[in-house]
Write a structure and sequence with these properties.
With about 240 residues, the protein is an alpha+beta fold. It is about 20% helix and about 25% strand. The chain is built from 3 helices and 10 strands. The protein has helices at about 1-35, 80-90, 90-95, and strands at about 40-50, 60-65, 100-105, 115-125, 130-135, 140-150, 160-165, 165-170, 200-205, 230-235. The strands form 2 sheets. A 6-stranded antiparallel sheet has the order 3-2-5-6-8-9. Strands 4-1-10-7 form a 4-stranded antiparallel sheet, with no helix packed on it. Strand 5 (about 130-135) and strand 6 form a beta hairpin. Bound molecules: calcium ion (2 copies). One calcium ion binds next to helix 2.
């Protein structure tokens, strides 16, 4: 009867011994840990140029991230932050809900023909991606930008460009009325939590405007945007 009783005690001592050895190993490793080099940082200058005739762009959201974040999908519901951005032009909720390594929120409207630059940085990685979003303010819920654009492979001083298309957040009907268009063409309401459109993100079908017979529209032909709305240039600096 005594022999089985001693086995657990021996096992207990053996376990203690292993723990003590582990502690000694940790102590011996510490000096070398201080020699670990600082991680290489990657810094990017992101320049946005408004290519439209008459669509001021709302203060942009610029987000540096990795594969853990996806801002929208064609055919899927817009997030609440994207709804707010696309209806009111405010980038803050959109940025708050992002899983970002770094981000910048614009503070001013970007007028047609103008450009603005932002700088974002993170530990260098092949996985780095860029997401940009901004509202075409003379619309109900049109936005332009790009998402999960791979930029981690850029060498220092290398750059690339992309003319971003226009999307419909699908969260507000495209009535084009002055009461619902927040930009200077309408001066109407911005964000409304109701969703009275198709409730999925898609390429924007375009605006009809008063020039094509939609007499309740606050828009005219100058507000069209058939060929993209923002030129995005990213340069690693
Ligand atoms: Ca819409
Ligand atoms: Ca809405």
């Amino acid at each position: 009867m005594h022999i089985p009783m001693r086995v657990p005690a021996l096992m207990f001592l053996f376990t203690l011994g292993l723990s003590a050895c582990g502690g000694d190993d940790d102590d011996r490793m510490n000096p070398s840990a201080t020699l670990t080099p600082e991680p290489e940082m990657a810094m990017f200058e992101v320049t946005l140029r408004n290519t439209t005739h008459n669509q001021p762009l709302s203060p942009p959201a610029v987000i540096l991230h990795n594969g853990d974040y996806n801002a929208w999908d064609i055919g899927a519901m817009a997030s609440n932050g994207l709804e707010v951005l696309a209806e009111s032009g405010s980038p803050n909720d959109f940025i708050t809900e992002a899983t970002a390594l770094d981000s910048e929120a614009g503070t001013e409207v970007l007028m047609p023909g103008q450009h603005v630059s932002f700088t974002v940085r993170a530990v260098a990685s092949e996985q780095l991606m860029l997401t940009v979003a901004t509202m075409l303010v003379n619309t109900n819920d049109a936005f332009t930008g790009l998402k999960a654009w791979p930029i981690g492979d850029l060498a220092i001083d290398a750059s690339r460009e992309y003319l971003a298309p226009v999307y419909d957040a699908g969260t507000e009907a495209n009535s084009e009325t002055a009461a619902t268009v927040p930009g200077p063409a309408g001066g109407g309401e911005g964000f409304n939590s109701a969703r009275n459109d198709v409730d999925f993100v898609a390429r924007h079908p375009g605006v009809v405007t008063v020039d094509d017979g939609l007499m309740s529209s606050a828009l005219d032909q100058s507000h069209r945007f058939d060929n993209g709305a923002v030129q995005v240039e990213v340069k690693r600096i």
